[in-house]
Amino acid sequence: MVQNFDEIEDKITESGAWEKTRDFLGLHMEIGNDISISILDILIVITAIFLTTIVLRIVLKIITRNLPDDDKGKFSVVYGYFRWLIYLIILLITLHSVGVNVTAVFAASAALLIGIGLALQTLFQDIISGVFILIDQSVHVGDIIEIDGKVGRVEEIKLRTTRAVTIDNKVLVIPNHLYLENSLYNWTQNGTTTRESVEVGVAYGSDVQLVKKLLLQAASTNDRVLSEPEPAVVFTNFGDSSLDFKLVFTLSDSFKAQFPKSEIRFEIDRLFRENNVSIPFPQRDIHIIK
To answer: Beta-carbon neighbour count of residue 191 at 10 Å?
Structure first.
């Protein structure tokens, strides 16, 4: 039986097809002066990448099978960032194993890699910031955020950018690296309700208790203002031309806060007019010396 196997092996080795296949796989391509790679080496690299892909998918399924659906999506995004690093490591190890001079590869592509690195510096910052966002849970889909003076409701957190929609229904695309460079205000991280305020000044000599009563009335009669916690009035300052008050109230949808605030200002103006409470404008006394 062993002799029969030896004969078959000898026939395969002596056949013209085997010789041609072996010669084809042994063909080398010269890349520069120091890098030489054969067809067989390329096939080995492709096979290694294919096997790595299968292993990574199996590992991902094993790790995420017991996670909640929300956490699965977040982990998959983070996992995708590091998958490419694993591919690069496997590629370099495989090239080194088949005899390719990896040092020469780096030397030949050094200038190109430096140029790409400089061009993609901001991209890498965005990706790293995206990882931080997912890990520390500072922003979620549906949150209302304010960054760099812009306010929007988060619709999607992607690899490089966060997409939000403004009150004007405009799409706001925020590069993720801005989260590291600017202060981020998350309006809804502690819940959907927020405390809002409207400021107003009245003339000196006004009945401050009446002013307080009218301000509370303006807030309590608005359908969008929550009854708990109750609206409050704060006497903030003795201004240059007015007594300054702040009406504080709670809304369930702070994303559209400008509309109930506008309604409350209209109501304050109406109530003040009915009760002869004046809102002063800045005044200055000018003394002319001749």
So the answer is: 8
Given a contact cutoff of 8 angstroms between Cβ atoms, the answer to whether 206 and 278 are in contact is yes
Using the structure block, give the residue that is written with the tokens 């409207």.
198
- How far is the CA of 188 from the CAs of 262, 276, 282, in angstroms? 21, 39, 37
pLDDT tens, position by position, 216-274 = 999 999 888 888 889 999 999 998 888 999 999 988 877 778 888 999 999 999 999 99
From first CA to last CA, the distance across the chain in angstroms is 130
pLDDT, the chain, mean:
76
Euclidean distance between CA atoms 28 and 228, whole angstroms: 78
CA angle, 164 then 167 then 171, to 5° = 35
Which of 155, 126, 131 lies closest to 74 in space, CA to CA? 131
The CA radius of gyration of the chain, in Å to the nearest whole number, is 35
Give percent helix, percent strand, percent coil of the chain, each to the nearest 5: 50, 20, 30
Cα–Cα distance, 235 to 237 (Å, whole number) = 6
pLDDT digits (tens, 9 = 90+) for 33-44: 555 566 676 777
Q: What angle do CA 59, 63, 64 make, to 5 degrees?
A: 115
**Read out DSSP for 78-116?**
HHHHHHHHHHHHHHHHHHHHTT--HHHHHHHTHHHHHHH
- Return the DSSP state at 225: B
Q: Cβ-count burial of 213 within 10 angstroms (0-12 exposed, 13-18 middle, 19+ buried)?
A: middle
Q: Which two tokens stand for residue 140?
A: 């979620």
Distance of CA 241 to the CA centre of its chain: 45
Q: Which residues pair with 191 in a beta bridge?
A: none
Distance CA 82, CA 84 (A): 5
- What token pair was written down for 34? 């120091």
Kindly give the interhelix angle for 69-97 and 39-64, rounded to the nearest 10 degrees: 160
pLDDT tens string 120-138: 667 667 777 777 776 667 7
